[in-house]
Amino acid sequence: MIKRIDIQIIRALAVIFVVLFHLEIAGVKSGFLGVDVFFVVSGFLMALLYKNGEAKKFFERRAKRLLPAYFATVILTLSASLFIVLPSELGQVNTQAIYSLFFSSNIGFWMQSSYFNKADFNPLLHLWSLGVEIQFYLIVPLLAWFFRKSKFFLFLALLGSFATCVFIVGISPKTSFFMMPLRMWEFLLGFVVAYYLTINGVIKYKNFSWLGCIGLLVLCVIPFVNIDGEALNRLQAHPSFYALLVCISTCLVLGFGLPKILENNAISEFFVKIGDYSYSIYLVHFPIIVLYLYTPFSGTKLYPESFIDKAILLILILIFSFLMHNFVEKRKFGNIGKVYLTSLVSLFLLTGANRIVPEMYNQQDQNIFNSLNDRSTYRCGKIVRITDPNAISCKINTEHFAQSILLVGNSHADAIKTTLSSVAMHHKYNTYFLVNNEPMIGNVLPPEEIIKEAISKKVSWIFIHYKSETLDLLKLNSLIQLSQKNNIRVTLILPVPIFENIPYYEGSIPKTLWQGKLSKLSYKDYFNENKEIIAQANILSKKFKNFNSLSVGNIFCSPICQIGTKDKHPYYFDDDHLTLTGSELLKPVFIEALNNSKK
């Protein structure tokens, strides 16, 4: 296949949009769609590069093309992290490196959190797309065999993957985002273009380059459209119909090319050069940004606040892209098996060295570092979303009792669910928990649906826990009324002290403890922050016989609100969410509430 200028141009656009998005440059709201462009281009090229019966040669060529720079990125990132980051984040980098060894970074990040969530430290997050690509390459020979039997299989696989992707995105957006089978339709669109609109990659219908021009124009505009990557609305979600528009636009360029006037000029030459470097740029840019902006206990920071930082980052990206492209990517490696084995040994040695690093710190420091892992599985876990995608709630405990409670709330309820469930178990209650993280917020799970779910699970008691500003008091009132009609008790667990938006705490309790600072928040501050919800709880307890509230502020504040134990086990893993250690403080409150229920 001859080198096509148009492909290099759209590769350049794709990587520029991704880099600008990761730098959080104003206006580039959906630059992550550049990855969708890469997937279509990759599918197009795989359809041309794979030759019948040459699976081994195909895999060797792909490995030589991708793996040296891929492993160099992982090894360099892990090595740099050894000297730059604290053990609290170093363990996360180790885990990401291990997943990358087996080309399953996408699965590792799917198990962790959403691509758009910055709570964790993820300098290798961008390798999720390489995981998807490599997993797709592994099935290319099988797909090609089926497609030779009948082109019907190509369209069936494409439509099936797209339909499943759109269906799942309305339930679990990150599953559609990270999982190869649900992204396969993007690669297969490239297959369709290669098979039907080109002859060995050479455009058949050259008189329709204006269609390619339209495709290019759409690609230039779409990253500036605000697309919510975590939305459950299937029309606006990602990957869904916006991704389809991006992929079709890419197909127009691949299938019909671009007018010569757009290809033969100085600007195009610049984009072609960027396209040549696109793989190296993609590999190095994200670790450089994340490591440069690293702040302990602050997750993944991407936005460089000063112009100088922006300039330095761009220079670093350019330098390391040049080095990666010219000294690794373009180098001819004879035995790719040795490259993989060497990378494997290097990564295991580095991960081993990194595991020793925490031992260099005293026990109190280690307690602080460990706080980022001092929490239970998020909500109901991943398996429920797959095995029962329509589930409204899940059962937390494994035992089976005659009575059940239902925990309602957002991420603050998630932080206490393990402690509440353990107390409930000893009092012979099952504990059910809502799958969705935003019940009674906006239009998500209104009180009527929660009561319907409670009845279906034979729940006799509902516990509610939110941060004060996120609890809708009108919906709380409605939920209590409906509960009373159905003979269900309701208990509001009042908000815990939070340190959000208090400059002294710098957004992280572990970081505050690491810096040797003490709490300055008092019970009076806590009361003033929550006085509206406390007052409303008192009114509701007098109005409804089935309702009461549990005070928790006095547990933490006496009168100063504590942020950790004497040996520095933090009570919070950020500025407002309790660790398992912190939630244990609430155990006496829960025990008393459940003991009183028997009186």
TrEMBL record:
Superkingdom, natural source: Bacteria
Transmembrane region(s): 7-25, 31-50, 66-86, 124-146, 152-172, 184-203, 209-227, 239-257, 277-295, 307-327, 339-357
Molecular function as annotated in GO: acyltransferase activity, transferring groups other than amino-acyl groups
Positions of the SGNH domain: 393-591
Alphabetic keyword roster: Acyltransferase, Membrane, Transferase, Transmembrane, Transmembrane helix
The UniProt record lists the keyword Metal-binding: no
GO biological process: polysaccharide biosynthetic process
Mitochondrion keyword on record: no
Gene Ontology cellular component list: membrane
InterPro entries per the UniProt record, alphabetical: Acyl_transf_3_dom, Acyltransferase_3, SGNH
The Acyltransferase domain, residue ranges: 6-323
Protein name: Acyltransferase
Originating organism: Acinetobacter terrae
